[in-house]
Amino acid sequence: MAKLKLDKISADPPREAEKEAYKEKTKALQKAIDEWQNKLYAEHKHALLIVFQGMDASGKDGAVRSVFSEVNPQGISVHSFKVPTEEETDHDFLWRIHKQTPGKGMIKIFNRSHYEDVLVTRVHKLINDKTAKERMKAINDFENLLTANNTHILKFYLHITPEEQSERLAERMEIKRKMWKYNPGDAIEAKSWKEYRKYYEDCFEHCNEVPWMIVPSNKNWYKEYVVAKAVHDLLKKINPKYPSLEKE
Ligand code: ATP
Ligand code: MG
Question: Which residue owns the Cα nearest ligand 1 atom 16?
């Protein structure tokens, strides 16, 4: 894929997009996703893996909460990848990831993912460019392996501007409901915005065999619509069906 420049892509909704109309569309998609998920579960042939990446406060948690709010909890689960534990770092970087992939009939959401191993680790110079290249190749092979096993993958980058991020991080110090998310480390990470952007762009270029979707995420209502639409459209394309009784 040609080099993609994040600062050339708008993080805002298109000018003509109307908030209320989009919220209505999202509601309809949430209900349709529930219907499709039921069929996916019943048919038990395909799995769906949904990867969310983005800077701190880009709205990963909110996307998970909104888009899948109608889905039967039995058919879906979320895993949030944090700083690896000692046991995890004693293994190859995909060890903890592979264990979390969805089985047939299931939807799995990754809140952060194997991409942290070629992002935060590069920003903090825990790995060099050569290792990053090797890891990106391993990621492509891994994603192709999953795809060949009927695991369909969607990868979303939630795209916000540094200004929007500053506002959201400030809210975590001011609004009671958001204070639990406050992490003094976020302000320090935010200073490395340019490095993060560079390494994200590298991922988009080198790990695009399963393509990335860049989601304009400065407005949550638009982000939720874009993600819901992509999930819905993929499920529709997979087109799972309720099995019928075997004829004697
Ligand atoms: P928010 O976006 O709302 O701030 P979050 O995803 O940052 O939420 P936290 O619990 O604040 O959630 O942070 C998780 C941290 O774990 C992130 O800083 C992320 O970079 C880090 N992390 C995840 N995977 C790895 C990894 N493989 N190596 C190093 N750090 C990692
Ligand atoms: Mg954080």
Answer: 82
